[in-house]
UniProtKB/TrEMBL annotation:
Organism encoding this protein: Candidatus Komeilibacteria bacterium CG_4_10_14_0_2_um_filter_37_10
CC per GO annotation: cytosol
Kinase keyword on record: yes
Domain Guanylate kinase-like: residue ranges: 9-192
GO MF annotations in UniProt: GMP kinase activity
Ranges that cross the membrane: none
Keyword annotations from UniProtKB, A to Z: Kinase, Transferase
Protein name: Guanylate kinase-like domain-containing protein
Amino acid sequence: MPNNNNDQRRVLVIAGPTCSGESTITDRLIKKYPIFTRLITATTRKPRLNEKNEIDYYFFTEDEFRKQIAVGNILEYTYFENTNTYYGSYKPDLENKFSVGKNIIMNLDLVGANYYKKNYDAITIFLNPGSLDVIKERLIRRDPKISTEYLASRLKTAANELDNEQQYYDYIVRNEQNKLEEALNNIIDILKKENYRLS
């Protein structure tokens, strides 16, 4: 397992419900510590506006995704029934990044977090935005035309993550409105405590 460099950790999982700020915090950490990079996820969903293959995601058809699983290139994956979409960790991307000495940040669900904790000695961090009301506000701000049904679906998933999943992560970090710097500093303290190489 890739954690043999003076026992320094190489994989970090930052998770949280929708609109918890995981992408923003991941981007800020990578900018501050360029030894970190993001794992590019494999998915069966269609590219959105301006998204590029092998940069934003590895885009596969469902058949291609299943073939990648069969040959061992998808290390772990999750199926989202409401959107009929698979997301998974793409092993070639992981190995390429390890080979050039990078630490890898992953934004995963609990299944993925547990996989990397068990197999790659990852520390797992759950971002808690404070309340469902904050999530609702952020979802509507992000997409003012969001449908009532889709909003309800996203909030139901977020409620489950807050109520039933966050306690299974190594750390819970609050990322409340207008307190991004505080959350970021708390995560940097965790990285130092948990022996991640930062330069």
